[in-house]
Write a structure and sequence with these properties.
The chain is an alpha+beta fold. It is built from seven helices and ten strands.
């Protein structure tokens, strides 16, 4: 039950749109079924729609999501071959076969809608998408050049509402890490802390890690697809032991 609940929570937009797509396909199938004088068996209608879904397609990356676009109705051709000598049955089932093929475009529309819905609910340019809860956060020191520090919860709660996404200077940061050293001759890590206990927004399906800049003002959010950098006006860290 916990696994099912977790999956539902983290795939809410896509599950909602997929459910609407299934309802629309079911409505269209019912409408076609009701208009026919001779009613075919319902379980055969279901199988015909499923076979009609088969198609020759190609996949494209869109908004960090791979979508499948159907171009040739392979399922319809298969059914036509099966019923080629049974004209009456083909007449009874062909509209359901084509419904199966066009269901691919219904699901495609649902995918685009879920992407739009997801971006509206979980804007990628806002830090609160990646850090939705701030009550149980802590700091993990990742590099020996980092000073001991704790997260300043009050400042974080104030700054997180106004932090904006900034451009990542990859070349500059790399050059800084390679050439800068501390007083002990150790290379200085730009993000020597990890912000632990972070949770993204409910239903976002995001899996991210948040790193804290050495001055405590920058947050680097890393997901499997991208990195985002956010900057605050005040340091989010309290340096030294409490």
């Amino acid at each position: 039950m916990l696994i099912i609940d977790f999956y539902f929570v983290n795939h809410f937009p896509s599950m909602l749109m997929d459910s609407l797509a299934f309802l629309l396909i079911g409505f269209l199938a019912y409408h076609i079924y009701q208009k026919q004088e001779e009613k075919p068996k319902k379980w055969k209608v279901f199988i015909v729609i499923i076979i009609g879904l088969f198609s020759f397609s190609f996949t494209l990356p869109v908004f960090e999501t791979f979508i499948k676009i159907s171009i040739l109705p392979l399922g319809v051709w298969i059914l036509y071959f099966i019923f080629r000598n049974k004209v009456e049955k083909w007449v009874a089932y062909r509209r359901f076969a084509w419904l199966g093929f066009f269901a691919n475009f219904i699901f495609l529309t649902a995918t685009f809608a879920s992407i739009l819905f997801h971006n509206l609910l979980y804007p990628g340019s806002e830090i609160t998408t990646y850090i939705a809860e701030t009550g149980e956060l802590s700091i993990i020191t990742l590099h020996p050049s980092a000073r001991e520090a704790t997260i300043n919860q009050l400042v974080l709660n104030q700054q997180i509402q106004t932090m904006k996404s900034k451009r990542i200077d990859s070349d500059g940061w790399y050059s800084e890490i390679v050439h800068m050293e501390d007083s002990l001759g150790r290379r200085v890590e730009r993000f020597p802390y990890q912000l632990a206990g972070t949770f993204p927004k409910w239903g976002s399906a995001l899996n991210n890690t948040v790193y804290v800049e050495k001055d405590g003002k920058g947050l680097l959010v890393t997901t499997p697809e991208k990195q985002l950098y956010f900057r605050s006006e005040k340091s989010l860290l309290t340096v030294g032991k409490e």
